[in-house]
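During the first year of the project, the team set up a workflow for recording each protein of interest as an amino acid sequence followed immediately by a discrete structure-token representation. This format lets reviewers and collaborators read both layers of information side by side without switching files. As required by the reporting guidelines, we include two representative entries from the current panel. The first entry is reproduced here exactly as it appears in our internal archive.
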Amino acid sequence: MAARIKKKRTPGKRLDGAGMQLPFQLETDLERKIAADPEWQQGVIWGKPRPGHNEGQVMYHIADVLANVDRFASTKEERRKLRLIALIHDAFKYRVDHTMPKTGSNHHAFIARQFAERYIDDQALLDIIELHDEAFNSWRMGVLRDRWDKAEERVDHLVDRLGPSLPLYLRFYHSCAAGVLMYHTGLIRAINGSEI
């Protein structure tokens, strides 16, 4: 049997204001400001290939999500918002203390929201950054623990909290690599009967 050769992804030659190479293009002054932050930079170079994120470093996941945003965004304004969510949503996994439960203030999405609050004042975007894994976590609760009643309660709470920003959440969820997998399970259709 031939050995599989893994090709390492390397950043492109796109530079932000701080000179960091990224595999995607920054488009706005706000995106460049976020990307110039050393905390964000440390977060996007974090990561090795792992279950659910075989691309390794967070910057490659962001690049994949941004490519999907280009495919799925329905308007320029929606695209602008989804890009901001994509840039920040997983950039703070490196700050999680893996000796503690990954909940509350020790969850990467909570930390990402706190970071985002320095740059973004749109509460819907901040909520989506914080809650971006909640639909997936609900699905996992049903599948892995056979606790579909609790999973449904969790999704109901998510839908209530998101309110009118649910369509944007679903669009981001679909754009995120894990979201594409869950989309095929029918989870998105199950959330309040919504479609994207």
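The second entry, processed by the same pipeline in the following quarter, appears below.
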Amino acid sequence: MLDLILLTKTTEKIGLVQNKHDILELAIDRPDQSQQLGSIFLGKVVTVDQSLQAVFVDIGQAQLAYLEKKEIPQFRKDQTQSIESLLYEGQSIIVQIIKDAYQDKGARLTMNITIANHALVYLPYGNYLAVSKKLKQTQADHLKEQLEPLCEAEEGLVIRTAARQYSIDQLADQISQLRLFWQTILTKADKQRPPQMIYEDHLITDRLIRKFSFDRINQIYVDQAIIANQIKTRYPELEHKISWEKQIDSILHMPVDALFQSIIQSEVVCDSGVTLVIDHTEALTVIDVNSSGFTGKMNQYNFSYKVNQIALKEIVKQIRLRNISGMIVVDFLRMKDRKSQQSIVQQFKQAVNADPVRTQIYGFTDLGLFELTRKREAPPHALSLSKRLIELRDFTLESKVYQLERKLIATTDEAVIVEVTREFRKMWDQLIDNKIFSQHVQTEVNFLESKGVKDYHIKRSGSSELINEFIYENQKLKVDKLN
């Protein structure tokens, strides 16, 4: 069973998934690096590229987004059509993000819109019906037979595993609700000019929740009562599992800042002293298994195999926790017999089954390297948190701003003075909405500009009397009161 912990007070929204023992998954949503997978836009075609048979679309992001011909509904009907016969430059189109922008690459788009709830995925232009492979064949056939006649015109459906929990009448109501929601999107698009977002699929309060089967969710803890009530309204089936937790940090297995710090470090210590070194490049991620600190006892024959077994469990955990995706190469200890290699492959396949993100295992190459790919839906967390992806040692200035915001909202002292550099203050003003910040912070916050600190330093924290005394004794210093 899984607990979802949603931290929504701060500018940087954070979602964590944990079981009884470990934090399994992390989601980070920042305004400067917003993850908009699943969001729907009214875009404008900027360039029709005949050589690529694709178009570049302005959806209001820094880079133009990319739409392939195969992602256009009309192409599915007649695959002999060229891209220039389907779309033209300057045309307004409704598109959905299927892969977030990454580094210098724009987002990838589709015009085959999908709108999902817990049990169904509604496809306005799908023109087909699919059923989850996890359903028994008799259940699948029954649901398909009953729901297919409810689709209108070009509509399609994907029937998810959770659909078995509902009656046909309830599913019919859900189809009507999803259809009505799509109509509201079309109506909104008619009143807008491109580029414009017309529907946002929120990462923390929507996508993270829908990612898991509801029967696997034990509890959802939210740090704001108003957000908890909004989630209950959108997901009434989960109402009894959603709760507002004022002291939400006490539920976490590890403080957020400590978790972030562990994610940006390249070395990971596993059980029995086995270590992993995780290196990122622009093309792929390389994970090296090191046995120099191994403390277990065994004979020479099964030494490599046992170390690889220990490493395997931690590798799968770190890939999911760090959101590592794309091409991944693991340099396991060399195993002489093929049977041991095959055993590691099977164990790896079994271990990644718990990860909701699709992972493809290719196994060992002739050089003994283990290859896999994991679907990239968003950048790795290390890229968001760290200054450099290849040299993961220090937080970005943006990360430190969000870090301080969390600390200030969490503190119960009456007042605080924070020394900040000019660059830090500029970044704070750029990222933090002071009006919203003031609603959540309980302490009086004062900024003191200084050249003698690295980014920021909490100089004084305590009673209002203590802070006022410091300000009085240091009247020459320019202290800026934030709230």
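For the second entry, the following points were noted during internal review. DSSP finds 14 helices and 25 strands in the chain. The longest strand covers residues 40-49. Both points are flagged for discussion at the upcoming steering committee meeting.
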